[in-house]
Every structure is written in structure tokens, then in C-alpha cells.
Write a structure and sequence with these properties.
By secondary structure, the chain is mainly alpha-helical. It has a domain of 161 residues. The protein has seven helices and three strands, in the order ααβββααααα. A three-stranded mixed sheet has the order 1-3-2. The radius of gyration is 21 Å and the shape is elongated. Bound molecules: zinc ion. The site of zinc ion has 4 residues, from helix 4 and helix 6.
Amino acid sequence: MPLFFGDPYFFLAIIGLIISLLAQLNVSATFARYKRLATYAGLTGGEVARRLLHEKGIYDVVVEETPFHLGDHYDPSAKVLRLSPEVYRGTSIAALGVAAHEVGHAIQHHEGYVPLNLRAAVYPIVNIGSHLYFPLILLGFIFRSLNLIYLGIFAFLAILLFQLITLPVEFNASRRALALLEGGGYLVGEEMAGARRVLQAAALTYVAAVAVSMLELFRLLAIAGLFGRRDD
Ligand SMILES: [Zn+2]
């Protein structure tokens, strides 16, 4: 989130900061709440992840523990599903929800789910874009080049595109997770509502990321507009 001296649209960056902060707080609070509630089945997140993978006929994905809090993820290149200690060893509603969500990503990979492949394909471009967009805009200001500024905005669009493709990937993984947990009897009754809330809170952080980037895009365009007018 670049700072520009005397930027009259800086308030957009502040709004974005508040949105992402609220989404993070919401996910932490929801996770903490359902981390305390044990499930009837009493299985750990690690056990459930392995069982769900096997139920789907996936035997080449390794489930292992990672020491990072909230560091749960599925690594498609290594075919490893890494779960944080509280998810891997936990028997809570939150633990099972998160574990099943990551299994959802492993199933997407296994089935060749198109948005997941699309996201992996645009990732290298996004990586370049995220490193270049700020230097390009800064250079645009230094050399008084509106073209460089627009090039920077174009690089920023790659980040937004990636975040947009991430939405269906995340929503779909959660949908799969809830169906698997309910279908397999891993969660029953009220437990399902809890897992749904945990996964919805997590999904909201991805929606928030898109909203924040949209605000940043408006800000960059507005700054470029001001800059262009000043040059005429
Ligand atoms: Zn996910």
C-alpha cells in the first residue's frame, strides 16, 4: 500500500486497512470460539484429513503437522497437506472444519478443478506484478511519466485478478469440506453450523482482500488522474 505525499485519496487506503483488520479479527475470534468446542466423533483434524482423502481415493497426499499457527495449507507441488498443531492434533469443530477445507483443495487438485489450475497458471505473472507495481508508479512520479504510472496500475491489476480467481477456489473447497464432514458423520447437528461459521469467516478474509485491492485500484487511478491533469 504505497504512500504518496499529499495524496488526497489516502483515506481509501485507511478504509482498506480497517476492512482487512476487521476480517482478520473476525476469523481469529470465530476460530477461537469453535476451537474450544470438542466434537462428538472425537477424531483429530489430522485423522479426519487422512480419512477424507482415502474416502476420495487419494493415497498420494501426505498429511503432516506444521508449527505455524493458522499456517494450514495444501501444497500441490509437493502433494502435502500441512496442518497447524491446533488443527492437526485438535478435535474441535474448528480443527475439523479447517482440516476438511484443506482436503477440499487436495481434491480440487486431484480432480483438476479449473479455477485452481487457472490460479496456479497466473501466479507467476502475479508474482512479478506484485513486485513491480509500486516501483513502476514511483518511477512514473520521479520521471513525470503517466505511461509508467499506468503500467504500474496494469501490474496491480494482475494482483486483483489473482485474488478474484482465488474466491471460487476457496468457496468451493469449503463447500466440499462441509459436504464431506456431514456425509461422513464427522460432524453432527449443531457442530455443522459451527464449522460453517468458521469457514465463512475464513472466506470473508478473501472477500476483504478483493475489496481492499479494489479501493487501492480506485486510489491509484484517482492519483493518476490528478497527475495527468497537472501535466497538461
Ligand atoms: Zn483455502
